[in-house]
Specification:
Elements: E1 3-7, H1 13-23, H2 29-37, H3 45-59, E2 65-69, E3 72-82, E4 87-95, H4 104-118, E5 123-126, H5 133-141
Parallel strand pairs: 4-5
Antiparallel strand pairs: 1-2, 2-3, 3-4
The structure holds coenzyme A.
Coenzyme A (COA) is lined by residues 23-24, 27, 93-95, 100-106, 128, 132-135, 137-138, 141.
Length: 165
């Protein structure tokens, strides 16, 4: 397998947003919200999930790494490092479904951890959903230790087409 992990370039943004919306359908809070409430403001969950990647790229583009297989972008990982706390966070990670199970996700995480170490971080954080079996196996197998579980809630405030009073 000819896999290369490289730095993110602005030109990669649309591709990694596309990989994101394909990868996260079964494991996305935004998708879950849509399952319960329908689309919001005429936008589906893909629009909202893709915004997270735009936000990661806006905050720390130098912390995004791209997995390229024979010249094709097949995955990515985003990182956010808070130098003051020494804790690095991995907000998003995805690999194209056609090439999963071959160690690309593992390589991306290892690369992100090395990036954190090089930047002086002492700890790394990652989150996964209860419904994400892969994450719950993969992350502990790479050395992450469970520290908390969280419940996400959502409520409707008004119909999207209603204007505020
Ligand atoms: C998570 C993800 C990035 C992993 O990518 P990948 O390239 O397949 O990862 P790897 O091949 O390095 O490892 C995947 C591991 O999960 C295991 N796995 C695959 N399907 C599984 C399942 N249904 N249940 C449990 N483990 C599973 C694989 O066996 C492998 O473990 P191993 O190395 O011990 O054999 C990919 O599955 C993905 O994009 N998922 C959708 C988006 C997502 O969940 N992102 C993370 C959000 S927290």
């Amino acid at each position: 397998m000819s896999l290369r992990i490289r730095e993110f370039a602005t030109d990669d943004l649309e591709t990694i947003k596309e990989i994101t919306v394909q990868a996260f359908e079964p494991v996305s809070i935004d998708r879950n919200i849509e399952n319960s409430f329908g689309t919001i403001k005429g936008r589906d969950w893909r629009f909202r999930k893709a915004r997270h990647i735009e936000e990661d790229a806006r905050r720390q583009p130098e912390g995004i790494f791209i997995a390229e297989w024979e010249g094709t972008v097949v995955g990515y990982i985003t990182t956010l490092l808070d130098a003051d706390t020494g804790v690095g966070l991995i907000p998003n990670l995805a690999v194209d479904a056609t090439v999963r199970g071959q160690g690309i996700g593992r390589r991306l995480i290892a690369h992100a951890l090395e990036h954190f170490r090089r930047q002086g971080a002492t700890h790394a954080r990652i989150e996964t959903l209860d419904q994400n079996e892969v994450g719950q196996n993969l992350y502990p197998s790479m050395g992450f230790q469970e520290v908390a579980r969280q419940i996400h809630y959502c409520m409707k405030l008004r119909d999207s087409e209603e204007t505020p009073d």
